[in-house]
Amino acid sequence: MFGIIPKPLWEKSSPPDEKNRIDLALRLILIVDEKRKILIDTGIGDYHDQKFIGNFDIRGQVAPVDEALKEIGLTSTDITDVIFSHLHFDHAGGMLKIENGNSVSNFPNATFHIHKKHYEYGLMPNARDAGSFHSHHYASIIKEHEANNKVNWLSENAGIIMILSTGELRYVCSHGHTPYMIHPFNDNFIYLADLIPTSNHIKLPWVMGYDMNPAISTENKSKLLSLISERKLLAIYEHDPIFYGSFILADSKGRYEAVSKQSDPEKKCVPIDYSLLLKNLLG
Fold it and tell me: Which of 152, 209, 231, 237 would give a disulfide with 3, using CB separation of 3.0 to 4.6 Å?
């Protein structure tokens, strides 16, 4: 998770177990608009075999996304849109469930928002990251949604995903972790996915060993941090085990740091009041 950064530095904030694994979250955003219920990413799902679960020490419930939605009185059929930052198994696995040995959509009523070039790459990834894409499970589901006119293919490096009652929900791409990973954002928040997976990854050199091109990740991170700081966006950390988000500001030397960290220690659904958080930030 920390690439070339020496263990004595990262283990202070992310203590590992005896197998060198660290705790990570699988955090999703639900946006409730006037006529839409929009999910960003879907987590790791529950279709994995015991060997896979043991390797990654996956700890979770059966149907984890459904259980999370149930907490707030929703079901997967209520979801109108699913935005995928990218199609790695820990971000797209909750897209599906297994019924009678077959993969079926967990969100049959939803329109999927996926970057076309990333999807194409995921069908034919290079040998280094092929294990991250479980296209043998998800490709048929995406094709089924497309056949039902329920796929919105994104095609640019930046653009608009959809128009909400509160304004535009936009995206910008990064390319170091995987080609065309999208980061949804609006005037309040940005979803950082795997570019800055935790609040401990804000430092520019701290990029993951999973990244296909760490140098590109560093360049993309620098640009995104500038955007976050200038617009005072709440950064949402998908994998941080403690903090769901923070603001990110530059100090007098231009070094970025997380401020006003927000935690969800009970690992429950947390409503976000952006106006209150911003008021606290500004004093």
Answer: 209
